[in-house]
Structure formats: structure tokens, C-alpha cells
Amino acid sequence: MIMTRNRLIHCALFIAGIAFTASAGMALNEYVLSIINFAGIFIILAISLNITNGFTGLFSLGHPGFMAIGGYVTAILTFPVSKKAMFLEVPPWLASMEMPFLPALLIGGACAALTAILVGVPVLRLRGHYLAVATMGFLIIVQVLITNWETVTRGPLGLNGLQPLTHLWWVYAWVVITVYVSWKIKFSSYGRSMLAIREDELAAQCLGINLFRTRVAALAIGAFFAGIAGGLWAHLVTAITPASFSLVLAFNIVVMVVVGGTGSITGSFAAAILFSVITEIFRPLEENFDIYGIGEILMALILILILIYRPSGIFGNKEPGVLSPPNKKGGCL
Amino acid sequence: MSGGYIAQQIVNGLVLGSMYALVAIGFSMIYGIIRLINFAHGDIVMIGAFVTLGLFQTLGIPFPVVALAVLTAGGIIGIMIERGTFRPIRGAPQVTGFIASLGISIMLQNLGVMFLTAQPRNFSFPDYLQRVIKIGAVTFRTIDAVIMISAFCLMALLMFLVHRTKLGMAMRATAENIDMARLMGININRTILSAFAMGSALAGIAGLMWGGKFGQIDPLLGFVPGLKSFVAAVIGGVGSIPGAILGGYILGLSEVLFVGLLPPVYSAFRDAFVFVTLILILLILPNGIFGKRIEDRP
Amino acid sequence: MLKIDDIHVYRGRTYVLQGVSLEVGRREIVALIGANGAGKTTLLRTISGLLRPKKGKILFQPDSQSQEIDISGASPEQIVQLGISHCPEGRGIFSRLSVLENLMIGAYLRKNRNEILDDYNSICRVFPILKEREDQAAGSLSGGEQEMLAIGRALMSRPELLILDEPSLGLGPIVVESLFQVLSEINSRGVTILLVEQNAIMALDLAHRAYVLETGRVVLYGTSGELAGNEDVQKAYLGGIV
To answer: Hey, is the C-beta of B285 within 8 angstroms of any chain A C-beta?
Structure first.
């Protein structure tokens, strides 16, 4: 009855998560809470990039681009009507609209996913590092467009004074959804198609897998969650500027995925937490000793060492034994 | 829009194109020989600029000596990158090389920020390089002429090295078939290192030119020109040196003309324009103008 | 001059050579025959240093006065320097380099320009077509010409031992005939040859001795005459025709 044991472990983790969230919300101070919130957002980002990058092997650096789209859409939708009139020049239907958080988030995510489909259809024909370069180009194009579309985005100033809607429950509910969805994908026939594409495209095609549709879907699902993360981020820091969604952010998310192990959900989860903690440790160091950049240097160094000495990351593409579904050989893909 | 105005734009485009070409050559040489993109290549431009600033402005070393020192410094950084990162991961998938070099790029930028602060610094050349020359309707500074001429000479020198020397022959052979080159007795580690050194030396000197042309430098300066030079290399066909040179000039000219001929509203979109071009070229003409078939080593 | 003693070679996780021993004497032509996947190419690549054996020794004696050297851990560059030249399957010419450059790169490790020029001239006497095409890109040559170029290039290092992997691959019968004539001529000038060949009839015709390789082991060896007369060899490799 391994199956039940497995279910039990998952349930136990879920309840522990709720208990943790509840107690954290009550017991901890603002500063620690914000770190836990950011960690949650990074978990969503890392796991969603893992769907694109780890499962299917599409190396995308465009994640912050999707995040920016989701973030801006959500922010504009929830922006109070009075402020819209003051700061933005948007069409009347939009100017008079002020949405609750959840639908705004969902629309933000959907817009990101839609963009992913539109961009993916031409770009996903590229392979390997050319795809990486093209998605990076996409990221830069998104940044330039947001910076210059001043009537809607206020350009480089960004939107500030957003309502602080994001709190622990929102973030961790989405963490659970992200983990659940990616888990379901990974251990489904769909996930195996993705993996087949990553390992050998030609063989996958011979098995009757629709290469292109699966690739686009993998990009779009990743983009959806990136969009959600963008929305959560915007309403956590209560501001959104184009500069936040930089290549450095893309790099950081990639580092989490690679360090955790490309394809491993547990790995991305752990690496995202590790990353948030390291950043918080280094922030005071950088500020007090005036050595800005040391955290980023350390990240890059860890990445390069991992690539040289343990290219499959900490967890490989596996999930630890106790978590993964029981079946053939350790139950992992 | 007079003929003089267009001539002026073309000169500006050639100056910019010379710098792109010098940087693009390195991308192409390195890709040609190990089929990996060195993403940190652009940051060598930044290092070249700061070495120039340090030696020339702070220490007052004469200009030609500085130029030689910058070439050397670029070459040394290239060698360090190869030894430290590319050699240990040789044979890994292309994407691994790409992320690793992106890591180096981030590291170099942040080392720059850490030691030099993110403050832009003024970069001024001696007066004889700043003098304005006027030919017909076209005006330019001495530095512009120096950039164009020295870029041309360096490229000619490189072509000579690659096509007329034993080392160049070994490099071309290694680029074509590594195993076969080893069977000829070629030390491929040395050949690959030479490709990194030469390409990076040119990127270093491009940094000197960049500083002289735009007058301000900061630790993040290499990123955008690096990316654009990569686009130039793709336009010409990555792996081909003549392709990289041609791609550099095409990109320089079209970028300047894009800004110069269209209404000013569009000039903010110049970077977007460059990357739209990149994506289109990757999709339509993936092997570039001089491209040989791109062999994928997945 | 070449003594291979019980070498074991893996390619990735595949155990390809499972204890191969063989010997090549000075001025001999030795043929290796065997089916696809028997490990012939792997054996040659191990001799020239592109692969490393897990176990076993490869002893090479560059000339009759010198000591035997174990080359099983040496790099391809060192092995070329010692006098072994490997002309791989599929020829491996540098198609973007000119014919002349291809030949000159064969002499990459040599310093004496006059000697190199002498060898170049003598190779051009054997393969006059190469002289005619010296400025052309090597990729533009025909298959037979490319094979000549590959052999010429291998000779440019002035080897003691020439290793040839499937020189007749993809060539017409007349070209193969003249190619084998050239090989025997090269041999008569003092170059030892180790040859892998699908065309077992021709290989046994040319070689003094031969080894039969099957799934990573030597199953049979002897003089060419003995092997050509062996029933199993006739059935498996000579198409039953004698």
C-alpha cells in the first residue's frame, strides 16, 4: 500500500504548509514575512520555468518578460479608478474598471500565456542556445515597449502606490497550485511527452507526439505562472517598474532551476528558498560594507561550479523517494 | 533630407559598425571553433574601456602603448575565461556553455560594480584625437577616423593570421573537425586558447574605441554592445569571420539609419529594432549571409 | 613494431574491445577484417590516442634501434610525433581548406622545410591529380581524389606506421584497384601498414597477415593465404567464393 503512504505524505505536507502559513502570519514580524513572501514568489517562478526549461528542455530566458506582462496587466486592472484618471491615459472602459485581485491575477496570467503562444509559434522553431538568445531578445523587446508606452505604463517611472493586496495566503495558495499542476504534468503522459522531447526530438516525433504543440504548451503554462508571479510581486512591493524585469532576474531564476536540478520540482522549490535566504544574508553585507554585487557574484560562481562538477544539479531530474509516486524503479521520470 | 545628411549618417554608421565588427569577430571565432557562444564576450569590451581609462588617464601612459596593453589585457581575460569555464565543460550541451558564460558575464559586471562602483566615469582623450575634421558636408572627429582605420587594419591583420600562418591553418582545421585536427598532431587546447585570445583582444580594443567615441563608461557598458555584436555575428553567419565583419557594418549602418531617418519618436525603440531583426534573421536566414550549415552538437 | 597486449576499451557504457592482442611487424601490411560493430574502428582510434584503454598496453617501437614505448596513455599529438599516422574512416579531409593546405597540415609537427617539400613532391608524383588541384578547396574533390588526399596527407607526417580505416569506402572498383596498388608501393618504400577493410578479398590479397575481429575479440589470425583458405572466413567474409 505504498500509494496510500504516498498520499498520506502529501496530505501531511499540505497540512504542515497550512499550519506554517497560519503561524507565520501571526507570529513573525513584517521583515521576515516579506522574505517568506518573496521566497514563495521565487518558488512559483522557479517551478514554472522548470516546466518550460526542465521538463521540455526549452531554454528560455524570457521568463521575466512574461512576469512583467502579468504584473502590469494585474496592476492596471486593480489600480483605483481615481488614480487611473490622474496618472494614466487609458480607454474609458479600462479607466472606469477596478477589479478584485483574483480575476485581475488570472487575466494577467492569461495575457502572459497568450503572449507566450504568440511568441512561441514562430520562435519555438529554434533550438538550443539560439532559442535562449531569441527569448532574451523577447525580454529586451518587452522592456523597451513597456518603457516607452508611457500613457499606460508611465514608462521608466512605473506604477506605484498599488494596493498591498498580496499576503502570505495568496502567495502560498499559488505556490500550492503551481506545485500541484507541475506535479500532475510531470507524472502524466503529457509530462512524459515533454520529457521525450527533451531527450530526443526525433524519437518523440516517431512516437506520435505533436512536437510543436507540446513545446508551445510548455512555454505557455510556464508563462501563465510567471504572469501570476508578476501580479503577486507587483502587489507585494506595491510598485512596478520595467527595470525590475531584467536579464539579471532571468539569470537568477535560471540559476535556481539549474542548481536545483533541471526537471526536479523539489529541486526548484529548495533552490528558490535557498536563493531567497542567501540574498537576504548578503543584502546587509552589501549595504554596510559598500560591496554591491557580491551576492550576484556568488550566485554566478555557484552556477558555474555546479555546471562543471554536477551538471544535473542537486536533485537531477528526480523527486526524493518519499514524495514521488510509487512505480517503476524509484518512481521517478 | 539632403545628401550631406545621409553621407554623415553613413559615416556614423561605419564608425559604429567598425566597433560591432571587432566584437562580432570574437563571437564568431569562438563559436566557429568550439560551437559555443561566449556570452561574456561583451564584458571584455567594458574591461578594455576601464583598462584604457586606468592606464591612459590615471597613469598617463602614451596612447599607442595603451592600445597594445588593452589588446593584451583583452587576450588575457579571454584566456582566463577559456581555462576557467569553457575547458572544463567542453563537450557539454550548447545550452550549458551559454548559461555558464552568462554566469561569467554577470560575475564580471558585478566585479566591476563592486570595485569601480556603478557610477559612470568620464573618458576623455587628448585634444589631437578630439579635433573636428570637416570634409564637404560631413564632419567627424579624429577619433572616428582612428576607429575606422585601426579597426580595418586589425581586421586585415587577423585575416592574415587566420589564412596565411600555420597557427591560422591549425585553427581552421580545428574548427572543421576537432578529432581530425588532433590526428594531425595539432594541440587543440592551444588552438582553442588562441582563438579566445585573439577574439578577446579585439573586444578589448573595441572597449577603448567605445570609450573614446561615447565619452562615458560604466561597468555595465559591455552588455548591450555585446548583445548587438552577437546579432551582427548572426547576421553574417556565426562561425564566419568575414560574415562577422560584414554583419557588424550592416548592423551599425542600419541602426544609425533607423535612428537618423525615421522620426525621432522611434529612436527609443532602437534596441527593440535590433532584437526584432535578430529574431527575424534566426527564423528566416538561420545560417546568416556567409553561413555554413550550422552543425548542431546538442 | 606495434604490439597490442590485451586491451579493453569502453565507449560510453558499451564494452567494445574485450581484450584484444595483436602484433604488427616492421614493413608488414596487416589487415583487420570483421563485421560492422566488431570494434575495428575503435581499435584504430585507441592506437592513435583518440580513445583510452581501460586496461592493457600498446607498445610501439618507432625504429629498430629504439626502445619500445607504451603509448596507451599518450595524446594523439605525441603519437603522431612518434610516427603513427591515422587516416580515419570517411577520410576526414578538411573540406574548407585547400588541397595544398590539407597536405601541409599533415606535416604540422615537422620543422624541416626542405624535407617537407621533398615529400610533397614525391606525393604529387604518386597522385598527380593533387598537384593539379592544389589551390582548390578540398571539399570540391571527388571521393577517390579525397581518399588520395587523405592518404597523401597521412604520408606527409612521414610515418613509420600508416593506419588506414576503410580506404575503399564508397569508391568504384577501378579506383579501388589503383588505390591498392599505391598502398603496396608505399609499403615497398618501407612504410608499415595496418589496414581495416570491408572488402576482405582485396584486403587479404594485399596484406601479408590478417586478424579477424568479432564482437571485440580476435577470433582468428594468420597469414593472408591461411585465412583466405579458411572455411569460416570464406563463408563469413569472402561470400563463399574462392
So the answer is: no
pLDDT at B98: 86
| Cβ C44 vs Cβ C165: under 8 Å | yes
Q: Would you call A307 and B104 a contact, using CB atoms and an 8 Å cutoff?
A: no
Write down the number of H helices and E strands in chain B.
12, 4
The arithmetic mean of pLDDT across residues B93-120, rounded, is: 89
* Tally of domains within chain C: 1
Chains that touch C (3 or more CB pairs under 8 A): B
In a domain, A131, yes or no: yes
Instruction: Identify the pLDDT of residue B294.
Output: 43
pLDDT of residue A316: 76
Please report whether residue A332 resides in a domain. no
A330 in a structural domain: no
Nearest-by-Cβ selection for B98 from A129, A247, A291: A129
* Of C159, C161, C156, C209, the residue nearest C26 (C-alpha): C161
**What is the domain-level CATH number for residue C75?**
3.40.50.300
Residue A318 DSSP symbol = -
In the beta sheet, which residues pair with residue C87? Answer: C164
Residue B187 has pLDDT above 70, yes or no: yes
A47-74 pLDDT, tens digit per residue, is 999 988 888 888 889 999 999 999 999 9
Beta strand spans in B164-268 (E):
216-217
Over residues B262-278, the pLDDT tens digits come to: 887 777 788 888 888 88
Asked if B177 is an interface residue toward chain C (Cβ–Cβ < 8 A), one would say yes
For helices B3-34 and B41-52, angle between their N-to-C axes, nearest 10 degrees:
120
Percentage, residues of chain B above pLDDT 90: 55
**Mean pLDDT value across residues A237-260:** 89
The b-or-e profile of C92-127 (16+ CB within 10 A means b, else e) is bbbeebbbbbbbbbbbbebeeeeebeebbeebbeeb
Calculated CA dihedral for residues A272, A275, A281, A284, nearest 10 degrees: -100
Nearest Cα neighbor of C205 from C225, C179, C191, C235 is C225
Residue C127 lies in a domain: no
Enclosing domain of residue A22: 2-322
Helix (H, G, I), strand (E, B) or coil at C14: strand
Read off the pLDDT of each residue in A178-206 and give the average, rounded to a whole number: 84
Instruction: Judge whether A91 lies within some domain.
Output: yes
Which domain does C189 fall in, by range?
2-92+159-237
B247 vs A318: which has the higher pLDDT: B247
Q: Does residue B82 surpass a pLDDT of 80?
A: yes
The DSSP symbol for B85 reads I
In the block, cell 573537425 appears at B177
Contact by Cβ (8 Å): B10, B245: no
What's the pLDDT score for residue A70?
95
CA-CA distance, B82 to B158, in Å (whole number)? 20
Instruction: Please name the residue that has the C-alpha cell 591583420.
Output: B157
Q: At what angle do helices A128-148 and B270-284 cross, to 10 degrees?
A: 150
* Number of domains, chain A: 1
Count CA atoms closer than 13 A to A257's CA, side-chain side: 29
- Does B93 reach chain A within 8 Å, measured CB to CB? yes
Q: What is the mean pLDDT of each run of 10 residues along chain C (242 residues)?
A: 94 91 94 89 94 94 89 92 92 92 94 93 90 92 91 93 91 88 92 91 92 92 90 78 48
**Residue C129: is it exposed, middle or buried by C-beta count within 10 angstroms (0-12/13-18/19+)?**
middle
Nearest CA in chain A to B219: A293
User: Most distant CA pair in chain A: distance in Å?
Assistant: 63
Spell out which residues of chain B touch residue A308, defining contact as CB-CB under 8 Å. Answer: 85, 88-89, 100
For residue A256, what is the domain's CATH number?
1.10.3470
